[in-house]
Every structure is written in C-alpha cells, then in structure tokens.
Amino acid sequence: MDGQDKLSDHASQDEESYFSDPESHGTFHNPFIESVRPLIELIDSLRLIGIDEDIGLPSIAVVGDQSSGKSSVLEALSGIALPRGSGIVTRCPLELKLRKLKKGRWSGTISYGDHSETFHDPLKVDYLVREAQNKLAGNTVGICNELITLEIFSPEVCDLTLIDLPGITRVPVHGQPADIGEQIKSLILSFISKSATINLVVVPCNIDIATTEALRMAQEVDPEGHRTLAILTKPDLIDRGAETDVLNVVQGKVIPLSKGYIIVRCRGQSDINEKISLDKAMQNEITFFRNHRYFSFLLNEGKASTQCLADKLTKELVDHIKKSLPYLTEQIQTRLLNVQRELKNYEQGPPMEEEMMGPFLSSITMAFCDLVHELSRTGHSKQGNIYASLRPVFMNWDIHLRKTQETFTEKVKEMIEKYNELHRGRELLTFSDFSEYERVVQEHVADLQEPAMGILKEVREIVQNEFKVICDLSFEQYPQLKYIVSNIINDIQSKQETKVEKRIKEFIYMEQLVFTQDKVLQQKLNDSDVPKEVGLDTSDGNLYEYSEDKIFNSKGSALLDARNLTPDKLVLYYTIVYQRLTDYVPMLVTLFMLKAAAKILRHQTMELRIEADVVKLLSEESERGCKRADLKQRLERLMQAQDLISSRL
Question: Which ranges carry the Dynamin-type G domain (predicted)?
C-alpha cells in the first residue's frame, strides 16, 4: 500500500467515527480530526502555488442569487461578520479558509495581488474585505475576477475552505454596467463548471426553488446533481401552509440532488440590529428546529442546522479530495511531461535569476559575434553566401568601366580631329600640348565617381541587411537588445560609408594625375599593334630603339610621338586605369563595409554588458518569449505540486 492509500484509509476511519456520532464532538467548534486536516491543507497549498491554473482542484464554490442568505451562511460557519448590504456586496471571488486552532489567539490574514496583511480583530474583516474589493474592482459597483483570500485561525471554527462568489443579479441598478448580470454569470461559471468543484447553492425557502437562477446554473454544469449541494435559508419566513412544499424540496422530490439539501436558519438583519451574537444565533437555530412542527425530524436526520452543514461540507470536501488525489497526481504528471515536451520547441530563454543574466547575455552576444565573424571571413550565413550577392554588383561595376572605354576612345578621336580648331593653344604648328590629352583623361575619370558611389550604396544595403538578419535571428525574443544592436549596425555602416566615400574620392582624384610606370605602359604598347604602325621592331633582337633597361629610348619614343597615334596610346593607358579601378573599388568597399565593419560590430556588441541594464536588455515581449515564460512558470508550478503531493503522502 502506497503513502496515498495509507493517508486516504486512515482519514476514512477517522472521519467515520467523527461524522457518525454527533455527540462525540458536539458543535463544529470541537477539535477536528488531525488526520483529515492535511488533505484540506494539501489542496490549499496547491492552490497557493497556482496549480489551479493548470488543473482543477477540489473546492467548494458558494453561489446564490442576491439576498439569498449567502453571507449569513458564511458568517455562521466562520464566526465573522462579512460585508452586507443591498446590491452586489461580494464583488470579487473570496476564498475563505477556516483553520481550527487547538489553542491560541484568533487571527486573520487577508491576501490579494502583492498585498498580505495579518490582523487580530474580527471586527476588521468587513472593512478589510471592502478595501480589497475597492482596490481590485474599483470604488464603484463593478466586479473583478481576481481572488481575495481570507484565512481565519480560531479555536471556534472547523477546518474548511470555501470560495464565495458574487450574488447573481438580473437587472442592473445604481450605475451598474448594463451587462453586469452576464459578467457575474461568466465569473460564476468559470468556477462551478470545473469537475473538481462542489457547488454549494444557497436558496431561500420563501421562493419557488425552480425559479432560482443559481440552481439553474448549477444544473446546467452538473445535470446529474452529483456535485451540487443545496442550502435552504430563511425557514422562518415561510408562508403558513407552505411548509410541506419546503419538505418536498429538502427530501429531493422537486429537484433531486445526489448530495441532497440542508436547511439552516442564520442571523437575519433584525438579529444583527438586536446585536445577537453568532453563538447565540446558533443556539436559537437549534431551538427553532427542535420546536418546529414540520422540520424537527430534519434535525435528527442531519438535514438541518449550521452544525449539520459544517459536518456535511467537511465530509463532502474530504471525500472529494480523496477521490480526486489519484486523478490529480496523474494529471500533474501528464501535464508536466507535456509542458517539458512543448518547452523543447522553444529556444533557450533568459534565466530567471538576475545574477545569471549577465553570463547569459555574454553567451548570446558571443554567438552573434561568431556569426558576424563567419560572415566576414567566408561570407557564409543562413541566408547563403554574401559574396554571391556582392559579385553581381562588382560585375556591373566592371561592365560599366568596360563600356566607358568605348566612349573614351570616341572622345579622344574627336579631340584629335578638331585639335587645331578647339584645343591648340600657344604651341607651334605640328606641336601638341600634353595637358590637353591629360584633360580628356581627367574629365573621363571624374565622371566615374558617381557610379562608384552607387556601387558603395548597393554594397552597404546588402551588408547592412545581412547584419540585421543575423541580429534578428540572434535576438528575436529580446526587442530591446535587438533594437540597440540594430542601431549599432546602422551607425557603423553610416560611418564606414563616409570613410569609403572619402577614399573613393581620393582615388578618383589620384587617377586624374595620369600616371603609370614606364614598364607598365610599354608592356601595353608591346602587346599592341601601335609600334608596328611606325615600323618599330619590339622583338628582343633589335635593341636600336631601346635603352639598356629595355625601355623605349628617345628615338623609339620619337617614332611613337605622333598625333595620329594618340587615341590608341590613350586607350592603352585607360586600360591601366580600368584595371586599377575595377579591382580597387570592390576591394575598398569590401574591406571597409564588410570586413572592418564586422570587426567594429563585434567589438561594440561585446561591450554592451559593461554598465548595461541586463534585465532590460533581456526583457521579452514577443509572443514566442511570452509563451516560453508561461511554459516555464507552468513547469515550475507542476514540479512544486508534484513535490508537494509526494511530501504529504
């Protein structure tokens, strides 16, 4: 026999002796059997950690129409005066925990939200409950779904937990919302529809039970009446001659309920006005039923009086808990496995402990930096290879430069044809001014600056977008961190673009100097047909036109110094310019916009942890992050519940 069975069997034996012999304990103010109390405390502990958000826990929900006598019943059970008045008095669910003390001073604790307050004056209950409702539901007549917990420790109560729900209303009054009735019904249904809840329905004796909205709602969620217990109140207000009708109700002849009916007579407003104590009211109740012509036998059958109600509720709750424990344990284990499995589908989130957040931030920023480094080193990323995206841009630059060779040739030929008319300065006839040829090159090269800047902007867009893709993937669930790193990327790219613009302008300006080493240009001439046009042999065997270092000597150069050869010679020089520009611009842009930018980005990202608000950086607002946080909370609750049940068995 496992611990759970032992606990249940031991509780069963004790409760049998406790509930079968009313004389053994007198009123419910007598000591309660210690072996039963742990069951109730176990459920309260599970509810305290919030496990009822995942699994329905055994509980007793008290429902009734307005002015049905709910407050009077709860007062009689708890020994305290709860808020009373017209209209909606209970505006928030009130969890009433009654804990019997063997000895000691009366005390109470009220808790809601982040607030918890302990007090020792029973007369403060009314004020504190109203204050709690005002804070949660506002100082109006609205309601709120948030739970208020009121725990009472007293030698004069039984061990019991009840949840008091707002009274059902049909017509809004005194500034209530038009849909107040639907709001209240929705709140009540959220409790009584759970299969683990015992529904305690309070119905006045002096109305037609069939018209009671509270009982109708209970029947709706519990058609067989297996978990519904009805309390009939105000028997002293029954019209003469209607006693038989009430007896038929109590005996289940009108609306059968497997848990049955109990009739009680609690303090009315006149009793309160006359300052009749709760103890005196209970004595008057027993006297009322003993002397009642029709209801006296109900007292002997355990179907009348607050004492019988307390015994019945305790027994029903304990039975309900015992029956629910195996299912509850199974459900916790099943939910635990499901949550663990679902949590695996989500990326690792930030740790809950603040002291662990710094190392976690370092780890995810390091992973980001590794991806950025790999991108700059090999070009690889989840989107593909960035060089595959850059190559077409650089190819277009090369194509543009090649096309400009044709326009350059045309410009030079046009200049030669109209040299004397348009370009000849103070030179003598047949002489040419090199500066005029130089100007053609300079103007043409200057026109390349704008397309070079266009290449720069295209590359910036590609690289910046790739960096941001890595940023989005790395910090998807951390919007604050993603925002900061994204701004860093923008800032770095802007600064690097400014540097590259300056370098390109400098290089274009250098190209306007019109310079290359003699050997470089001569190699171009050697590989062309220009020397042959003037009968110059460029083979190694004829050194007549060369100096000792194989460079054209004065005579060789003179043979080539003809105006008609200028277009071909300048075009050959332009191929040198082309070669320098077609490589230099892509290399310059790649170096600054990708390589250097990646290095700066890694450095600045790693510095984020220095004096950073780590908690803020790791705050999650995304749906995925919220879902993971919710799963983690559920996992923690379920594990606590599992440990709690194991420790109590």
Answer: 54-326
